[in-house]
Amino acid sequence: MNNKSSLTTSLVLRNIDIEIKRGRHIGICGAVGCGKSSLLQALIGRMPLLSGHLAIDGSVAYAAQQAWIFNGTLRENVLFGSSFKKDWYDRVIQACSLEPDLRILANGDMTEIGDRGINLSGGQKQRVSLARAVYSKRDIYLLDDPLSAVDVQVGKHLFHKCIDTLLKDKTVVLVTHQLQYLEHCDEVYVLDEGEIVEHGSHEVLLCKDGHYKKLIEQFHSNMDQAQNTDDISEIVDEDISTHNDNTSKQSEGRTEEKYKEEDYDKGILTDRETSQIGTISSDSYGSYIRQAGGGIVAFLVLLLYVVAISSTAFCEWWLGIWIQTVQVQENNLIASNESGSNFPISANTSTTSLDKVNNTIIGIEKLQEESNWYLMVYVYSTITLVVLCVLKGLVAGGVMTNASVNLHNEAVGRVMSAPMQYFDANPPGRLLNRFSRDVEEVDIFIPNLTDNLLQVFIMILASLVSTAYNLPVYLIAVFLVAFYVYIIKVIATIPLLSLKRLENVVRSPLISHVTTSCSGLNTIVSFSQENNFMNA
Hints:
Elements: H1 2-10, E1 25-30, H2 36-43, E2 60-63, E3 72-73, H3 74-79, H4 86-95, H5 99-104, E4 112-113, H6 122-135, E5 140-144, H7 152-166, E6 171-175, E7 187-192, E8 195-200, H8 202-208, H9 211-261, H10 282-292, H11 295-340, H12 349-416, H13 420-425, H14 428-470, H15 475-519, H16 521-526, H17 530-534
Parallel strand pairs: 1-6, 1-7, 2-5, 5-6
Antiparallel strand pairs: 3-4, 7-8
Helix pairs in contact: 10-12, 11-12, 11-14, 12-14, 14-15
């Protein structure tokens, strides 16, 4: 019983019983947070159904409360995968009051709109979302408060010219806080705390003296207060508007000339992402070294690598000398014993055997003493090697981490201080790519590669020095191999760099597409555009 009670209280919608006949206009109202938007999402199947059933006969168009706009032209946002039909398109644009906006935009409906409609106002985004739903010519229209972000005059135009005229023969479910339009609806549903508390026509609900009547009275009271405030502001602004009327015509001409001079007048908003061509410049290496702490810090790290790797070479060299010395002494000891055994047997045999045993014992003791000395040097050198390797890892890791942190902080500082036009021209996916994959490479890939490079380079250099000292003739082969490796490096560097840069450039649109699709998933599903977005 308790479990059932807790489950009931956690539900967003409860006891919903709604039946909408074809061609009727339904209004849904209620207080903020009562479940109006959740009801529309349930109708498009975006909420889990725990009990009961949901049946919809016909295609559905959905206009979300928070208008979803993707990166593309305004026309592409309206068409949303549908074919372009000029007559119907013009009617929809006029009914959704987008004609004045098209005259303002740089290239009309072919103007590029940024991700999430970054270069549109809230009212413009809401009207584009409404136009998308209307243009689709669906059987059922679910409109989630499309009049909230527009002023009174535009709201009247949208309702009477679009919803009440263009969609008069369609099934419309309208969620709104503009209660003055509910009297034009065939039926009104009132929600409170996730339940339908009243439903019926506007006149019938007013006679019941219930939730709906209270909402209407509160709405008219707020409208009266807003009207008084508007009257005062109109008196204050009257002188200002008189002065501005004289200068508006002059400023219009100047504004048009300004728009023509700017690049984004042609409707192109997003800059094309480019990559560097050729090898990595020395400035890039210098920038990384500066962020790591400067040239002195880099030299100290390099010196630490040289000492650590030299310690490794010393340990190996000392171990080789130790083994060689022991083998020589053992061979000498065996040879002396064998030479002593070739004497003939005589009275002095016992004395000779005793001397041989003594010499053997002395040789073994001397060998043991030298082995202990070699062992002591090897143990201390090994301990020193371990300390140097740990110190090298801590110092080099700290320096490279410092470089990564400084590069990240500098990038964040520049982005945070960038003008708004920068964010208009660069979609969010591009910024996410810079601060995710690129930062990951600076944090992980570059330190690992640098560590391997320094270790291998110093070991090769030490080997070359040893070879030049012991067997100089082998340097001829070394020079030939080095020349061959250099040719391979020159041939392979350019395509590898190009592929890496191409990968970084291609990833940005993918991230933008995924983030945009996730934010507009409800709209995409309601319009059955899943395949188009997955194959985009």
